[in-house]
């Protein structure tokens, strides 16, 4: 739980070389933005793309988790292992999740218990997300750090859009649509209060076994008090 940017990339190209070039161009732009870390582009195929066959300590573990596609046939939800992954990872900064960018090819069908199931996943696509909220922790640099992290992710998506392969962006901070930094700062403040209030209630109900990232904020008690719903008399 936390303020997150969700995004889907899609290219109509049929060429793996062109897909690689698109991802590489996005990486080059990332190097000009204030990310703390920018990884190399990886080009994986076959078993290299299979999360179940990857090393649990692999630096690409989170990237492969996000590269996995999905298909739903009620009441089941199936994971789809890509055939090809061309992608790279970035780390926007302290307190922020990695933001991964890339393109994948998926099989037309997968084997399930009662036969084969069409995936509906066509062409080069990528669906991912990056939770930026906890970059606002004062221990990580506060709101200034959050704004740098969040805007860096959006600016890189802007570049992907100029290259023509952004299908959709859902920014829970509203910056993708509004481009309003003060509004984004207010939004993350509201989210911090809301989640601190909820975390406080959960701790009341279930004790210290409840672990919440927001409780690591040095001003957690203030945020919790502000975010608590009014008592029902």
Radius of gyration: 20 Å
Uncertain regions: pLDDT < 50 for 5+ in a row?
A: none
What's the main sheet like? Answer: 4 strands, antiparallel
The average pLDDT is: 93
Quick structural overview:
The chain is built from 6 helices and 11 strands. Helix content is 35%, strand content 26%. The chain folds into 2 domains: 171 residues, no CATH class; 42 residues.
Q: Any overview of this molecule?
A:
Helix 1 (16-30) packs antiparallel against helix 3 (142-162) and helix 5 crosses helix 6 (220-227). The strands form 4 sheets. Strands 2, 3, 6 and 7 form a 4-stranded antiparallel beta sheet that branches. Strand 8 (109-112) and strand 9 (115-118) form a beta hairpin. Helices cover 35% and strands 26% of the residues. It has helices at 16-30, 61-67, 142-162, 175-178, 181-206, 220-227; strands spanning 4-11, 37-38, 42-45, 69-73, 76-80, 84-91, 99-105, 109-112, 115-118, 124-131, 166-171. The longest helix is centred in the last third of the chain and has 26 residues, at 181-206. The protein has 2 domains: 4-174, no CATH class; 186-227. The protein is globular, with a radius of gyration of 20 Å. The protein starts with a strand and ends in a 6-residue tail after the last helix. The protein has 233 residues and is an alpha+beta fold. The protein has 6 helices and 11 strands.
